[in-house]
Design a protein that fits this description.
Structural class: alpha+beta
Order of helices and strands: HHEHEEHEEEEEEEEEHEEHEHEEHEEE
CATH architecture of one domain: Beta Barrel
Strand order of the largest sheet: 4-1-2-3-6-5
Mean pLDDT: 86
Number of helices: 8
Helix content: 10-25%
CATH topology of one domain: Thrombin, subunit H
Number of strands: 20
Shape: globular
CATH superfamily of one domain: Trypsin-like serine proteases
Length: 372
């Protein structure tokens, strides 16, 4: 075989080999999508939180029940301790080892039995503080140099963009600590849920809705965008069965960051103070409205107000009808509660009020309830 043919064959062989290597590299690149990279970035910061609620049951020997009943409920049998285990998710969100989770993960617990990283390491933590109304709690890891998840912005989320729910559903049934991931889209932004959800005592308003699968145990875990940034804290599902039905909700991270900053700095969320109460105008009969001098058809009638509260100092009075609060329409007292709960000490509160048929505006700075 002459030298020219040999060189040609060698060149062809090199092309085939390099082509195969290139094709394999292209396949690997196509597999490592933005979603995969985001999961790789955030998962190491996710933790499983195991809690224990200690309950006591009265145990009575059936043969002795008649005897014990003679002495009333205090002597009806012996107390038996029962430990009820629960599980939730959290994630390290800063270089200082602070861990975010939902308050309801810890609310009924007597102790935190373990906090486990995705690599299997168990870490010691201490409770920093919580805000029940926004359902946010902060723990502090005692281990240094932990991986942490970068926080993004929820205000820029677009309906339809990809998001990833990372958590530990049914973690007590699994033998390994790695978190579970599910992928979906932002189904809706600024979702207003019924006032009755959370007993009406939690700020479950302006939530992120997603069809990424969220199940029991996911609570407190991060909702992540395709850039690997946490945009929400997975909090609850709407379900007829208790399992995922594509209706998951997350607290927007813009709210979470402000609450977390307060808790880390003060050990608590400083409670915004209103100092007044009201009743919905729609609840009053026409004759009652005439007697009260109310000309509005909607809004909240101020029925109680403290003279030293910032709203009074700004000009709000008994008999005023609040129809707007910081640019949002007001029809029920809980509307005012939810808007107020989302404000922080030093924020501006702007009231739109109707008085004697005239519209007036009052503005004041939010103060802390605990200072009063």
């Amino acid at each position: 075989m002459n030298r020219g043919i040999q060189l040609a064959l060698c060149a062809l062989a090199l092309c085939l080999v390099s082509g195969g290597v290139f094709a394999e590299a292209s396949i690997d690149d196509s597999r490592r999508t933005a979603i995969v990279r985001a999961i790789e970035d955030v998962s190491p910061a996710v933790v499983t939180i195991n809690v224990v609620d200690i309950q006591y049951d009265r145990v009575v020997d059936p043969r002795m029940s008649d005897f014990f009943n003679l002495f009333g409920p205090r002597l009806r049998g012996a107390a038996r301790e029962r430990q009820v285990e629960g599980v939730g998710t959290g994630f390290v969100f800063d270089a200082d080892g602070h861990i975010l989770t939902n308050y309801h993960v810890l609310q009924d617990a007597d102790l935190i039995s373990s906090v486990t990283l995705s690599d299997g390491r168990q870490i010691e933590v201490e409770f920093v503080g919580a805000d029940e109304r926004t359902d946010i709690a902060i723990l502090q890891a005692k281990t240094a140099d932990l991986p942490f998840a970068p926080l993004g912005e929820s205000g820029t989320l677009m309906t339809g963009e990809w998001v990833i729910a990372i958590g530990n559903p049914f973690a007590n049934m699994m033998r390994d600590p790695q978190p579970t991931v599910s992928v979906g889209v932002v189904s809706a932004n600024h979702r207003q849920v019924s006032r009755e959800v959370g007993g009406g005592d939690r700020l479950y308003q302006n939530l992120i809705q997603t069809d990424a699968a969220i199940n029991p145990g996911n609570s407190g875990g991060p909702l992540v965008n395709a850039a690997g940034q946490v945009v929400g804290v997975n909090t609850m599902i709407f379900s007829n069965t208790g399992g995922n039905q594509g209706l998951g909700f997350a607290i927007p991270i813009d709210r979470v960051k402000r609450v977390a900053d307060e808790i880390v700095l003060y050990g608590r969320r400083r409670n915004p103070w209103m100092g007044f109460r009201g009743e919905p105008v729609a609840a009053f009969k026409p004759f009652a409205k005439r007697e009260l001098g109310v000309q509005s058809d909607d809004g909240v009638l101020v029925t109680e107000i403290m003279r030293d509260c910032p709203a009074y100092r700004a000009g709000l009075r008994l008999g005023d009808v609040i129809v707007g609060f910081n640019g949002q329409a007001v029809t029920h007292p809980t509307d005012i509660d939810y808007i107020n709960w989302d404000l922080y000490v030093g924020d501006a509160a702007r009231l739109l009020v109707e008085r004697d048929g005239q519209t007036q505006r009052f503005e004041y700075d939010i103060e802390e309830l605990d200072q009063k």
